Amino acid sequence: MKLKKIAAVTGLLLTTVLLNAQEIIKKKDSIIAIKPEKKEPLFDVKFSGFIRHDAVFDSRQTVDVREAAVVLWGKDVDFDANGKDRNSASKFQMLNVLSRAGVRVNVHDVLGAKTAGFLEGDFFGNAEGGINEFRLRHAYITLDWKKSQLGIGQFWHPLTIPEMFPGVVNFSGGAPYMPYNRNPQIRFTQKLDANFNLMIAAVSQRDFTSNTAPYRNSSLPSGHVQVNYKSKNALLGLAGHFEQIRPKTGSGLTNDFSNERVNSVSVMAYGRFETKPMTIKAEAMYGENATSFIMLGGYVGYTPTSGPGLETYSTMATQSFWIDLTGKTKKIIPGFFAGFSQNDGANNPISGKAVAYGFSNVVGGIAASGNTTNRTINYIYRLAPRIEVPIKNLKFGLEAEYSAAEWGNADNSGRAVSNLNLIGTWRVVFATVLKF
Fold this sequence. Notes:
Elements (H helix, E strand, L loop, with lengths): L1 H24 E2 L2 E2 L11 E16 L3 E4 L4 E5 L16 E5 L4 E11 L2 E10 L12 E10 L3 E9 L25 E10 L4 E8 L9 H4 L5 E9 L3 E12 L4 E2 L4 E2 L4 E13 L3 E11 L10 E5 L8 E16 L5 E14 L6 E5 L1 H5 L11 E17 L2 E17 L5 E20 L1
Antiparallel strand pairs: 1-2, 3-6, 3-7, 3-25, 4-5, 7-8, 8-9, 9-10, 10-11, 11-12, 12-13, 13-14, 14-17, 15-16, 17-18, 18-20, 19-20, 19-22, 20-21, 21-23, 23-24, 24-25
């Protein structure tokens, strides 16, 4: 009997509690829904890129890359039996391989730093035979603290500064007058105060060289130091770069073991200025073994002509200067680029068979007296006026570019000393770009 009473009381209490709970969650005949816990996404993704079409006319044959998508300088004269220059033939083509796509990824903070990544590629290919193939441009991770940044991956070489890119229509940008390269690297940037920044970097070699083995066999990364000043209307900087390569592990007439090295130092000063009518950008650079930057230069190897002896090396020096002006009008934007670069040859030429090495030698432009083709370039210059018409995400660009190169027979330092010819060429580029 007692159990029945206890059960009845318990049932009455439970009913009362349930009725009260229903009254609590009812409000104006509506039930208040219990919201699930909101979870932040693990990452945020943003896509970007552009579709680009280029129509290009060249007044003569050129030294270039990827079917002349990137032009360096006009080819030397090549006379037939009747004294006519075979390289004076003009050419025309249209290309879309410069189109690209990229993705930016932001993830949760790591070690108290805003963490992001950037992955980008295009259809330029990694070699002449690979044009139209997709290739990697950037694969870069950044960790940003309040006053410092750590960057790891493949990105623009520290001497290739995005804020300093000239506004030219031609896809080659400022090359071969400015250093142009992308490299695997680890770089650290520190804000010194509101305006000054310091960057140090360890850099490896991947793109824009005919042979990465000399860079890998040195067993050392390249070293870079850079300081700049940034304000609302100005960017000023000074950069220094040290690089050591080991061209061969065996050399000489009997291919003996070699540990010969090439040390090179490059220094660059740059500035960008914002004025009311235009943006002004300029760089001046002294480079040693600058060939991996798509510039004149390289290094020269000297081998004894008789008896035993290893091939020894001397780096070639290059001077380069450029300026770019871009108007600040809205409907039609004018611009002008001017560049000059000079090959100063090997710093310390010695006796023996002299052979020049590097990207500029492979494509044709730098040589020494012992190369199979001993024609080399003393200096180059370029003048390029342009206009651009931006319409929302679409932009049309037209540029007329005049380039000249002084060719001649090389001495043992890689300088042209005889049979000189100044070769000029025109390039007209019409580009259409749709950004997304």
